[in-house]
């Protein structure tokens, strides 16, 4: 699997373009539209049938509308419990932080443990509430897209609507820290890390 990282949107969210040898790709955390991503899609002759959202806060969904225009037929996937946050511009903080309302309904809402096959790659969706009620992480081939659940040496904040620190700690301990230690973690902010490092050194949740 190849993964490219871009910083998009006003808060420089990590946005990932990931694909395998079939040329079928997914776009993860489109915080804002970035022409470089579309250039990579063209240069590598990719098809992008899915846009994956780990949660509905405005800094992670600001680019969805334009990417959907640029990628005809691409379907947005999110956890079912995140519907309210995605669709309500007051709850997803878009009016406050972006100065414009965002309502981004998903095309497909999934449940904990469901999978999606794109090309030869299987993506598994893990419900990891705590940063938001319907937050999820996406696991595939030794990789975890952790959204704002787990960061390098840190965790997602829980003072937004639907946040719950106890729930977040439980999600990390029971869903993420059970992954192999060499699982690479691609978070929504900050740098790449791995599960083994976080279990040993993360001051918020130790494995």
Share of β-strand residues = 25-35%
Instruction: Give the end-to-end Cα distance, rounded to a whole number of Å.
Output: 27 Å
For the biggest β-sheet, the strand order reads 1-2-3-4-5-6
Q: Helices and strands: which structural class?
A: alpha/beta
Order of helices and strands: EEEHEHEHHEEEEEEEHEEH
Instruction: Write down the Rg.
Output: 16 Å
The whole-number mean of residue pLDDT values reads 96
Strand segment tally: 14
Which overall shape is indicated by the principal axes computed on the Cα atoms?
A: globular
Tally the helices. 6
Characterize the main sheet: 6 strands, mixed
The helix content, as a percent range, equals 10-25%
Low-confidence stretches: none
Give the topology.
Elements: E1 2-8, E2 13-19, E3 24-28, H1 35-43, E4 47-52, H2 64-70, E5 75-79, H3 83-87, H4 94-97, E6 108-110, E7 115-118, E8 121-127, E9 136-140, E10 143-147, E11 150-151, E12 154-155, H5 165-176, E13 184-187, E14 193-194, H6 195-201
Parallel strand pairs: 3-4, 4-5, 5-6, 10-13
Antiparallel strand pairs: 1-2, 2-3, 7-8, 8-9, 9-10, 11-12, 13-14
Q: Can you describe what's shown?
A:
With 207 residues, this protein is of the alpha/beta class. It has helices at residues 35-43, 64-70, 83-87, 94-97, 165-176, 195-201, and strands spanning 2-8, 13-19, 24-28, 47-52, 75-79, 108-110, 115-118, 121-127, 136-140, 143-147, 150-151, 154-155, 184-187, 193-194. The strands form 3 sheets. It has a 6-stranded mixed sheet, with helices on one face. The chain has a 6-stranded mixed sheet with strand order 7-8-9-10-13-14. The chain has a two-stranded antiparallel sheet with strand order 11-12. A hairpin with a 5-residue loop joins strand 13 and strand 14 (193-194). The radius of gyration is 16 Å and the shape is globular.
């Amino acid at each position: 699997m190849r993964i490219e990282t871009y910083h998009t949107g006003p808060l420089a969210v990590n946005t990932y373009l990931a694909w395998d040898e079939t040329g079928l790709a997914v776009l993860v955390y489109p915080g804002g539209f970035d022409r470089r991503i579309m250039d990579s899609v063209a240069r590598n002759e990719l098809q992008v049938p899915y846009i994956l959202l780990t949660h509905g806060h405005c800094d992670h969904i600001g680019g969805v509308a334009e990417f959907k225009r640029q990628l005809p037929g691409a379907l947005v996937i999110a956890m079912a419990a995140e519907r309210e946050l995605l669709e309500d511009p007051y709850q997803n903080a878009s009016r406050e932080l972006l100065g414009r309302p965002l309502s981004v309904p998903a095309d497909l809402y999934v449940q904990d443990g469901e999978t999606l096959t794109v090309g030869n790659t299987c993506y598994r969706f893990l419900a990891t509430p705590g940063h938001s009620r319907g937050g999820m992480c996406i696991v595939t081939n030794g990789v975890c897209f952790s959204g704002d659940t787990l960061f390098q040496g840190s965790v997602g904040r829980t003072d937004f609507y639907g946040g719950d620190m106890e729930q977040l700690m439980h999600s990390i301990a029971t869903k993420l820290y059970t992954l192999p230690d060499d699982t690479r973690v691609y978070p929504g902010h900050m740098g790449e890390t791995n599960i083994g490092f976080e279990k040993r050194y993360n001051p918020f949740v130790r494995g």
